[in-house]
Write a structure and sequence with these properties.
There is one protein chain. This protein is α/β, with parallel strands linked by helices. The protein has a single domain, classed as Rossmann fold (3-Layer(aba) Sandwich). The protein contains 6 helices and 14 strands. It has a 6-stranded mixed sheet with strand order 2-1-3-7-11-14, sandwiched between helices. It has a 3-stranded antiparallel sheet with strand order 4-5-6. Strand 8 and strand 9 form a beta hairpin. Helix 2 packs parallel to helix 5, helix 3 runs parallel beside helix 4 and helix 5 crosses helix 6. The longest helix is centred in the first third of the chain and has 45 residues. It starts with a helix and ends in an 11-residue tail after the last strand.
Length: 315
């Protein structure tokens, strides 16, 4: 009988010490969470800032060869949408029409990179013309880069006069985007919207309404010397959304008030959901459906990448 009591007493003692050991370990774990991990999480959420660069061009110079569109109209509605998404007006840079030269765009990217920090959200928006231009570094299978068209870029190659120096190619853009990614780190988010197109046929009349198309089917061809060594494209470390597929045209949308906007810009601007509570995949699907519903012609969004590898929310 005594041996049996001793046996149970020993088991009770062992169980007591085991529970004490676990409790001590749990206290240490909670101390780590409370004093180390939690402050980092809180600082990341509360310290996160939202920044934007908005570029909109509609009134290109007459001698540039580009037809008039309404990319400038997009900026006010996109800025309004960002303010509703908790962006501060002080953190929104914008360039409209003649302000949006290539030099000013590059300076604005530099200013943006100086403002942002690890964990921040960066939203970039370009509304204007786009064009394919001869690929000079060999990273495109079809031999042509895609380019955004700043205010001071011309439509056609002219030896000694204009040779594409003011086109903003995707190679240059990727360098700028990569610099932003280094600034915001893996915790930060980068969203790029291009309400432009690299194909199209200008504008044409339809009954009593003019139809405006962004982009051109005319390629900007630069004479090349020698062979180009083919390179592997760099991976995409941001969410890039274009208003249409490469083989489609980007038609502007005439609002009920009679003003013209990029159809993707118009859809984004009227979205009332908070983007930090929305999966970017779900949001892209809604935008795709809305663009298809508003456009009179076949037009589907084109996208690649994601805002961040850390979570699936847009902001």
């Amino acid at each position: 009988m005594c041996k049996k009591n001793i046996y149970f007493q020993n088991r009770t003692t062992i169980f007591y010490y085991y529970c004490s050991f676990l409790a001590e370990k749990m206290i240490k774990v909670w101390r780590i969470i409370l004093f180390i991990i939690l402050p980092l999480v809180v600082c990341n959420v509360w310290g996160q800032s939202r920044h934007a660069l908005l570029i909109g061009i509609g009134n290109y110079p007459e001698d540039s060869g580009w037809n008039i569109i309404h990319g400038n109209n997009d900026i006010s509605i996109i800025k309004g949408a960002l303010l509703r998404q908790d962006f501060s007006s002080d953190n929104i840079l914008q360039l409209i029409d003649s302000e949006a030269t290539k030099e000013n765009i590059l300076l604005s990217f530099e200013k943006l990179s100086e403002r942002i920090q690890s964990g921040d959200v960066v939203y970039l928006h370009f509304s204007g013309h786009g064009q394919q231009i001869t690929d000079l570094n060999g990273d495109e299978d079809d031999g042509f880069d895609e380019a955004w068209i700043p205010y001071d870029a011309r439509k056609t190659f002219s030896p000694g006069e204009y040779e594409g120096e003011n086109h903003l190619t995707d190679d240059e853009l990727n360098t700028l985007f990569s610099r932003l990614r280094k600034c915001v780190g893996s915790q930060g988010k980068i969203i790029i919207i291009a309400d432009a197109c690299h194909s199209g046929s200008g504008s044409r009349g339809r009954s009593d309404e003019e139809v405006f198309v962004r982009g051109t089917g005319d390629k900007f061809v630069i004479p090349r010397q020698g062979n180009i060594v083919r390179k592997k494209p760099e991976p995409t470390e941001w969410l890039f959304v274009a208003a249409c597929k490469p083989y489609q045209s980007n038609y502007e949308y005439r609002s009920p008030t009679g003003e013209y906007y990029g159809v993707l810009s118009y859809v984004i601007a009227r979205e009332s959901k908070q983007f930090d509570a929305c999966s970017y995949i779900d949001l892209l699907q809604e935008w795709t459906d809305s663009v298809s519903g508003l456009s009179r012609y076949p037009q589907n969004l084109d996208n690649e990448g994601q805002p961040s590898r850390r979570n699936a929310f847009m902001f």
